[in-house]
Amino acid sequence: MRYTGPKNKIARRQATDLGMKTTGSKSHASLLKKINIKPGQHGARYRRKVSEHAKQLTEKQKLRYIFGITETKLKKYFTVSSRKEGNTAVHLSELLERRLDNVVYRLGLAPTRAAARQLVSHGHAQVNGKNMDIPSYLLKNNDTVTFKSPKTKEIPYIQVFRETNEIIIPEWLELKKDSGSLVKTPDNSLIEQQVNLRLVIEFYSR
C-alpha cells in the first residue's frame, strides 16, 4: 500500500527531507528543525547498531516514500530495469523520473509529488494535448505536459507555491510558461542526492 500516515514522522525516521511537505510551509520548517531526531519519546537518544540489510531496507523505503509508490510498483520497476543492459540504478531512476506525477512536480507545477499525483488523477493534466489521469504514465522524450485548464494554476496552494518559491528545473526538462517538455532522457543525479541506489539494487538482488 502507498504510505498515507504522518509525513514528518516518516521523514524523521529516515533522517532526510522526503519532499512530502510544501517548501516554505510551517510544517516543513518544523520538520527541518527535528530532521535528525528520531520520532517517539526516546528519539533524541535513539542509538542502535544498524545491519547491512537494515541500511538497504532504509534506502529502499526512502525511494518509495519520495516517489509515493507502492512496494509492488517499485519492485516492478526494478525487475524491468534489471533486464536491461547497462546500469540498473540508472534505468530505475529513468523509470521513476519519467512518471507523469513526478514530471509535474519537477516542473514546479505542484508543490509536492502527492499534490502532483492528485492533480493528475483528478484530470487536470494533459500530455501532448490529450487528457491523462494516470499518475504512473511514463512520458517519452519530447512529450509535452500542460494543465487542462488555465484555471488550475489559480488553485490557491499552487499559486502561492509558484509565487514564493524559486523552481530549479532539471536539465532534462524544459518549462515554457505553463507548459513543460521532457527534452532528453533523465539521469539518476537528483535521486542519488537523496538515496543510495546501490543499496536499493542490492536489496532487491538478494
UniProtKB/TrEMBL annotation:
InterPro entries: Ribosomal_uS4, Ribosomal_uS4_bac-type, Ribosomal_uS4_CS, Ribosomal_uS4_N, S4_RNA-bd, S4_RNA-bd_sf
Biological processes annotated in GO: ribosomal small subunit biogenesis; translation
Keyword set, alphabetical order: Ribonucleoprotein, Ribosomal protein, RNA-binding, rRNA-binding
Domain Small ribosomal subunit protein uS4 N-terminal per the UniProt entry, residue ranges: 2-97
Gene Ontology annotations for the cellular component aspect, listed alphabetically: small ribosomal subunit
Residue span(s) of domain RNA-binding S4: 98-156
Molecular function via GO: rRNA binding; structural constituent of ribosome
Free-text function comment from the UniProt entry: One of the primary rRNA binding proteins, it binds directly to 16S rRNA where it nucleates assembly of the body of the 30S subunit. With S5 and S12 plays an important role in translational accuracy.
Family: Belongs to the universal ribosomal protein uS4 family.
Assembly and binders: Part of the 30S ribosomal subunit. Contacts protein S5. The interaction surface between S4 and S5 is involved in control of translational fidelity.
Protein name per the record: Small ribosomal subunit protein uS4
Native species: Candidatus Roizmanbacteria bacterium CG_4_10_14_0_2_um_filter_39_13
Gene name in the database record: rpsD
